[in-house]
Amino acid sequence: MEGRRAITRVEYTMSTDPIILKRDGDIATITLNNPAKRNALSLAGWHWLSETIESLDKDESLRCIIIQGAGDKAFAAGADISEFPEKRANAEQAYVYGLATDKALEQLLACRHPVIAMIRGACTGGGLEIAACCDMRIASQTARFGVPIKRIGHAFAPSEMKPLLDLVGKALVLEFLMEGQVIDATEALRHRLVNRVVDDAKLETEVKETAARIAYGAPLAARMTKKVLNRLMNDPAPISEAETRESYTPCDSDDYREGFEAFIAKRPPKFKGS
Fold first, then answer.
1. 25, 2, 22: which is closest to 12 by C-alpha?
2. 243-259 in b/e burial notation, b at 16+ Cβ within 10 A?
3. Distance between CA 255 and CA 271 in Å, rounded?
4. Which whole-number Å values give the CA distances from 211 to 1, 176, 193, in the listed order?
5. Using CA atoms, how far apart are residues 122 and 114, in angstroms rounded to an integer?
């Protein structure tokens, strides 16, 4: 939108932090930063991701989050297997390690702000788990997707499998896990794993424009949309009257009045998140 500053690429080589956070107005960009290993996340990286999302979730001024991988070769290739002999060598260690993964995925799913995954290159294993927990996934034509953990004799934990299962269904999940299939962006779009696929050169522009459209809207309405959607998808219980009433609470906001007054006056609304 007019007046919104562009989100610039982070100079990744300047930092060894596993997660880089960049803020541009009401849009935040999280970069998974381990390009030498296709942005595989160490155990520390999973903790950083969880803490970063938790912090952003509390930020009232935020309107959208973008998650990307450093460089051009990968969104993320999953967990850093090189540390498995020390930190994930048996079932008990894997369980403890998995708690860190679970927390990061739970924070993503529960985050009240809209989250977009900007996917170029490999989006595999834990990287696909992260992407599946985002609200939207926009991929470049050279992106590829899979969970080839059968190659290391591993299985998906329930909390890792459910977001992907909800997204694409049993058939593709089994192809990923039992066959070790890796699919391209066109196939991912056919399975509705991604929202859209664009030319590699246009990916960043497409994602920034999408984030800007989201941020231009009323943030209280966007947060309520996420809350209602998550409730409908994850809890089979009938919707209560209290929950239905809560879904209308944005209508008590200044933004709601601004919205319909702007519509009637045929002018652009200026939402403040209040």
1. 22
2. eeeeeeebeebebbebb
3. 5
4. 10, 30, 19
5. 23
User: CA 144, CA 73: separation in Å to the nearest integer?
Assistant: 10
128, 145 contact by CB (below 8 A): yes
CB count within 10 Å of CB 227 equals 15
Helices 158-168/91-110 angle, 10° precision? 40
One DSSP character per residue, 58-97 reads: T-TT--EEEEEESSSSEEE--B-GGGHHHHSSSHHHHHHH
Both tokens of 196, joined, read 């859209």
Roughly how many angstroms between the first and final C-alpha of the chain, as a whole number?
20
Give the pLDDT confidence of 212-246 residue by residue, as tens digits: 999 999 999 999 999 998 889 888 899 999 999 99
Distances in Å between the Cα of 58 and the Cα atoms of 62, 93, 107, 236 are 9, 31, 11, 28
Query: Which among 97, 99, 102, 100 is positioned nearest to 48, based on CA atoms?
Result: 100
Alpha carbon distance 111, 260 (integer Å): 27
**pLDDT band at residue 6 under the 50/70/90 scheme:** very low
Tokens (6 digits) for 253: 């906001």
